[in-house]
UniProtKB/TrEMBL annotation:
Protein name in UniProt: Phage gp6-like head-tail connector protein
One Pfam family in the UniProt entry: Phage_connect_1
InterPro entries per record: Phage_CHP, Phage_gp6-like_head-tail
Annotated source species: Martelella lutilitoris
Top-rank taxon, per record: Bacteria
Signal peptide (from-to): none
């Protein structure tokens, strides 16, 4: 899903840990045996990925690269929370790749939303027509908010108890929307 003029983030340094530990997920599921640890670990990763996709949010800290077509796209970065801009690279009009001097821009970190603006009395450089600008960012929470973790735990619980696409032998075949999932994420959705 493209957000504004941005490409999807490409992870260049993955997160070291998940936001939810295996122990916390097992406690939520009231599982006291180890046979399902592999399955539960996959559900933790899937829940984080789902939350990140539907909210436009990065739950665990990682480094990503995004591309856009022009500096005007910097008015709103498509992911958050942004912790640091590591580099801005572009193709200059002569065709050479150039890394923008960090003194040429300022990063505005406004909660979950972030932008990059030209430094005072500086403008953006010219780029080769048709080229893209690359931005390397450190994104994600230091510690995921409790509401985001609870939304993930609700998904993990629903998916663990309903491991198949179709439920048979019940009056209702529709899975619940994980009672409160969207409410828990309401303050953390960047792409709403």
């Amino acid at each position: 899903m493209s957000r504004l003029g941005w490409t999807e983030p490409v992870v260049i340094a993955p997160a070291e840990d998940e936001a939810i530990t295996l122990e916390a997920a097992k406690e939520q599921l009231t599982v006291d045996f180890d046979d399902d640890d592999g399955s539960i670990s996959r559900l933790i990763a899937a829940a984080r990925d789902h939350v990140e996709q539907v909210a436009g949010l990065v739950v665990v800290r990682k480094t990503v690269t995004l591309h856009c077509h022009g500096f005007e796209d910097f008015a709103r970065l498509p992911v958050g929370p942004v912790k640091e801009v590591k580099a801005v690279r572009y193709i200059d009009p002569a065709g050479g790749e150039t890394t923008l001097d960090a003194a040429a821009y300022e990063t505005r970190l406004d909660g979950l939303r972030a932008s990059i603006v030209a430094a005072p009395r500086r403008g953006w450089p010219a780029i080769m027509p048709g080229s893209r600008i690359a931005v390397d960012l450190v994104v994600g929470f230091d510690e995921a908010p409790a509401a985001v973790c609870q939304a993930m735990l609700l998904l993990i619980g629903t998916w663990y108890r309903n491991r198949e696409q179709v439920i048979t032998g019940t009056i209702t075949a529709e899975l619940p929307d994980s009672s409160g999932f969207w409410s828990l994420l309401s303050n953390y959705r960047l792409n709403a």
